[in-house]
Design brief:
Layout: H1 2-37, H2 44-49, E1 54-56, H3 63-74, H4 81-95, H5 104-112, H6 118-131, H7 135-144, H8 149-173, H9 178-204, H10 208-221, H11 230-240, H12 244-254, H13 263-275, H14 283-289, H15 293-308, H16 312-316, E2 328-330, H17 334-350, H18 354-361, H19 365-368, H20 386-393, H21 410-431, H22 433-461, H23 464-472
Antiparallel strand pairs: 1-2
Helix pairs in contact: 5-6, 6-7, 7-8, 8-9, 9-10, 10-11, 11-12, 12-13, 13-15, 21-22
Keywords: Membrane, Transmembrane, Transmembrane helix
Transmembrane segments: 20-38, 408-429
Subcellular location: Membrane
Length: 473
C-alpha cells in the first residue's frame, strides 16, 4: 500500500515537472489559438492591412490667389510636393479621358496636368485657349495664374460657358459607346468642379446666400457625386449665415451610420448641441447639481467628435497655431484638424460659451476610451499610419500633432515588470538550476564587491583592538 502511494506521488511529481518544463510551449499555442478565434471580432486582419486613405480637401484654397500670396509674404511653401503630386493625379483623373488626343486643345491640357513646373502649365493653358475655348484650360488659369478671387471668378465663368457646351454635346452621345461614356463622365466632372469653385468664390467674396443657393442647386442636379463632399462646403456657408436649423437638416441627411464621417460632420453636430447649453454652462454649477439632459447630450457629442479626431480642440482653443490647410487631408489626422479649424474657428467663437464647454470636457474623452488606445467606443480603431501620412501632407515648418497617449501609472508598470522578471527567473531556475546557481553567486559577489572593498579599507585603517570591540557590539 505504501509502495503504491509512493509510486503515485512519483508520477504526480513527474507530471508537475513535465508541465513546468513545457508550460511556455503550451501557453504559446493557446495564445495563437485565441488570436485565431478572435481575429474577426478584434478585426485583426483589418488593422494589419489598414492603409490611410487621403481625401481631397473640400475647402481647399486657390493656388494663385491664396497659397502663392502666403509664399510671397513669408517665403515659405505651404504645400508639400506629395500634396501637389496628389492634386496632379486628381486633375488627370477628373479632367482627362482617353479621347483627348482627338482634340488638339484637350491633348495639350492632358500634357499640362502632368507638368511639374507651374509656368509650363500656365503656358500650356494659354496655348490650348488659342486653339479652342477649353474649359479645363480656364480652370488651370483660374486656379494658378489668377492672383485674386475676383480674377479667378471671371475665369471660372468663362470655363462654365465652355464646360456647359461640352457637357450638353457629350450628354447626347453618351450611350453611343464606351469612349463617349468616358468623355461624358469627364465633362460632368469638369462642370461640377467649375460650379463648385464658383460657389466657393461667391462665399469668399461675401455673397454667402448666393453661394448657398449654388451649392444646393449643384447637389440637386448631381446627387450621385457625393465623392466631392459638397455638403461640407454647404455646412460652412450655412454656419456663416447662422442658419442653424438648416445646418441641422443637412447633418440629419449626412450624419448617417452608413456614411463615412469627417471632422466637419462630428464637430458641427457637437457645436449645435453645445449651442443649446453653452451660454449658461458653468463647470462649478454642473459639479454641484450634476449635468442636465441637454448638457449631457452636448458633452457626449463633444466626446464623439474628439474620439473621431483628437487634434481639433487644440486648434479651436488656440493652444496650437494654425497654418494654411493642405489640398488633401487625412481623416482623423492633423491635416483634417487644420482644414476644419481654419474655416470653422470663427463659427465656434460666435456661439457664446461653446469654446468654454469644449475646454472643460474634451480631455475627459481619453479617460473614457478603454486601454489600449487603439480601441474606441463609437469609431473604428485609430489608424496607426496617420502620423506618417500627415508628415508628408503638411509642410516641414509645422509641428505635426500626434495622438494623445494615455500613460499607465508608474506603480502598475513597475509591478508588471517585477512580476514578469520574477516569473522568468523561476522558469530559468527550474530549467537550469546549476547554471542559474553559478549566475546567482556571480551576481551576489559582484553586488557585494563594493561593500567588501569598503570593509577591507576600514579594517586596514582602524586599530585591530577597536575593530574587535565594534564587531562584538
Amino acid at each position: 500500500m505504501a509502495e503504491a502511494g509512493t509510486g503515485f506521488l512519483e508520477q504526480l511529481k513527474s507530471c508537475i515537472v513535465w508541465s513546468w518544463t513545457y508550460l511556455w510551449t503550451l501557453w504559446f499555442f493557446i495564445m495563437l489559438f485565441l488570436v485565431y478565434i478572435l481575429r474577426v471580432p478584434l478585426k485583426i486582419n483589418d488593422n494589419l492591412t489598414t492603409e490611410c486613405k487621403v481625401w481631397r480637401n473640400p475647402l481647399n484654397l486657390f493656388r494663385g490667389a491664396e497659397y502663392n500670396r502666403y509664399t510671397w509674404v513669408t517665403g515659405r511653401e505651404p504645400l508639400t510636393y506629395y500634396d501637389m503630386n496628389l492634386s496632379a493625379q486628381d486633375h488627370q483623373t477628373f479632367f482627362t479621358c482617353d479621347t483627348d488626343h482627338m482634340r488638339p486643345a484637350d491633348a495639350i491640357m492632358q500634357k499640362a496636368w502632368r507638368e511639374r513646373n507651374p509656368q509650363a502649365r500656365i503656358s500650356a493653358a494659354h496655348e490650348a485657349l488659342e486653339l479652342n475655348e477649353c474649359a479645363t484650360a480656364y480652370i488651370l488659369l483660374a486656379e494658378e495664374e489668377a492672383t485674386t478671387i475676383v480674377e479667378a471668378e471671371k475665369l471660372f465663368k468663362q470655363a462654365l460657358k465652355a464646360g456647359e457646351g461640352c457637357y450638353r454635346r457629350s450628354q447626347q452621345l453618351q450611350h453611343h459607346g464606351a469612349q463617349y461614356e468616358a468623355q461624358h463622365r469627364r465633362d460632368t466632372n469638369v462642370l461640377v468642379y467649375i460650379k463648385r469653385r464658383l460657389a466657393m468664390c461667391a462665399r469668399k467674396l461675401g455673397r454667402t446666400r448666393e453661394a448657398v443657393k449654388m451649392m444646393r442647386d449643384l447637389m440637386k442636379e448631381f446627387p450621385l457625386l457625393s465623392m466631392f463632399n459638397i455638403h461640407e462646403n454647404l455646412l460652412e456657408a450655412l454656419l456663416e449665415l447662422q442658419a442653424y436649423a438648416d445646418v441641422q437638416a443637412v447633418l440629419a441627411k449626412y450624419d448617417d451610420i452608413s456614411l463615412p464621417k469627417s471632422a466637419t460632420i462630428c464637430y458641427t453636430a457637437a457645436l449645435l448641441k453645445a449651442r443649446a447649453v453653452s451660454d449658461k454652462f458653468s463647470p462649478e454649477a454642473a459639479s454641484r447639481r450634476g449635468l442636465s439632459t441637454a448638457e449631457m447630450n452636448a458633452v457626449e457629442a463633444i466626446h464623439r467628435a474628439v474620439e473621431f479626431n483628437p487634434h481639433v480642440p487644440k486648434y479651436l482653443l488656440e493652444m496650437k497655431s494654425l497654418i494654411l490647410p493642405p489640398e488633401h487631408i487625412l481623416k482623423r489626422g492633423d491635416s483634417e484638424a487644420i482644414a476644419y479649424a481654419f474655416f470653422h474657428l470663427q463659427h465656434w467663437k460666435r456661439v457664446e460659451g461653446a469654446l468654454n464647454l469644449l475646454h472643460c470636457t474634451w480631455e475627459g474623452t481619453f479617460r473614457m476610451i478603454p486601454y489600449p488606445l487603439e480601441k474606441g467606443h463609437l469609431f473604428y480603431p485609430y489608424p496607426i499610419c496617420t502620423e506618417t501620412a500627415d508628415r508628408e501632407l503638411l509642410p516641414s515648418f509645422h509641428e505635426v500633432s500626434v495622438y494623445p497617449k494615455k500613460e499607465l501609472p508608474f506603480f502598475i508598470l513597475f509591478t508588471a515588470g517585477l512580476c514578469s522578471f520574477t516569473a522568468m527567473l523561476a522558469l530559468l531556475t527550474h530549467q537550469f538550476p546549476e547554471l542559474m546557481g553559478v549566475f546567482a553567486k556571480a551576481f551576489l559577489s559582484t553586488l557585494f564587491a563594493p561593500l567588501n572593498f569598503v570593509m577591507e579599507k576600514v579594517e586596514s585603517i582602524l586599530p585591530s583592538s577597536l575593530w574587535h570591540q565594534l564587531t562584538r557590539i
